[in-house]
Amino acid sequence: MITLEDFDTYPDFPVDGILFYDIAPILASPERFREACIDLMPPRGSQVDIVVGVDARGFIFAPVVAQTLGVGMAMVRKKGKMPGDLLEAEVTMEYGSSELTINPQGIEGKHVLVIDDVLATGGTALAVAEMLERAGAASVRFSFLMEIADLPGREALAAYDLNAIVSV
Question: With respect to CATH, is domain 45-167 assigned 3.40.50.2020?
């Protein structure tokens, strides 16, 4: 099981007052990477039709989880990184803002598992959920490597099933 000791930490990155948890040690170890992907899986018996990886670190884990589940994968990208007819959402995070996009093709009627590295304020996750719901997703659930418990992310996502491997 992945624990807090599996992350490196960097104070005041990317801005003062933020303690950044780096996933590089997990990625450097085949055993830890495998464990992280297993820990991100939904509970046995959960219906998942597609896995969505959130830019950028969610992209690392989502394809492995999707392949293990035998389902496809979609990407949530920062605006300007994907072509086509996209859904967009503005995101306010603990240290900035961003615009995200997703291609809605293949989402309608699907049970979606969203994978990202960190749950903090819940701003990114809520924006992703909103885009997926606009695309017609039947359900949305989340799985994170880490949850920062002092921030309101879990509260913001109270309407969704949520898994966080490590809570700090």
Answer: yes
This prediction has a pTM of 0.95
Among residues 35, 94, 130, 133, the one annotated as catalytic is 94
pLDDT tens string 37-58:
999 999 999 999 999 999 999 9
In the residue annotation, 57 being an active-site residue is answered as: yes
Residue 114 has a CB neighbour count (10 Å cut-off) of 26
CB crowding 29-65: b at 16 or more within 10 Å, else e: eeebbebbbebbbbeeeeebbbbbbbbebbbbbbbbb
The whole-number average pLDDT for the span 14-22 is: 90
Given 5, 32, 44, 57, the catalytic residue = 57
| DSSP H or E run through 128 | helix 123-134
> Letter for the amino acid at 76?
V
